[in-house]
Amino acid sequence: MDSYYCIVNLPGVPVRDICVLDAASDEAADRALQDLARRWVGFETLYLYCGERVVTVLSNPALGFAEPLPDLPLPVRFATAA
């Protein structure tokens, strides 16, 4: 069974932390990732994985990252923290 985990990148500090998330589905992991984003103020990007599969990449709009384009056919769902 694969685990959900997140790699936290800060500006100038890649792979600052690796956090294991308590989730049983991609949707539950996405919700847990949103909670994690609220705790890591100033994060640059959060990469959510299930095993070796990328689930979501969250970028911080406060650092100038653009909002994702709607209906963009990417292999990864990009999201921005609210």
Summarize the model shown.
The chain is an alpha+beta fold and 82 residues long. It has one helix spanning 26-39; strands spanning 4-10, 13-21, 45-50, 53-59, 77-80.
Description:
With 82 residues, the protein is an alpha+beta fold. The chain is 17% helix and 40% strand. The protein has one helix at 26-39, and strands at 4-10, 13-21, 45-50, 53-59, 77-80. It has a 5-stranded mixed beta sheet with strand order 2-1-3-4-5, with helices on one face.
Draw up the topology in text.
Layout: E1 4-10, E2 13-21, H1 26-39, E3 45-50, E4 53-59, E5 77-80
Parallel strand pairs: 4-5
Antiparallel strand pairs: 1-2, 1-3, 3-4
Number of helices: 1
C-alpha end-to-end distance? 30 Å
Determine Rg (CA atoms, Å): 12 Å
Oligomer: single chain
Strand content: 35-45%
Order of helices and strands: EEHEEE
Main sheet characteristics: 5 strands, mixed
Structural class category: alpha+beta
Which stretches are low in confidence, meaning pLDDT under 50 for 5 or more residues running?
A: none
Could you list some keywords that capture this structure?
82 residues; alpha+beta; single chain; globular; 1 helix
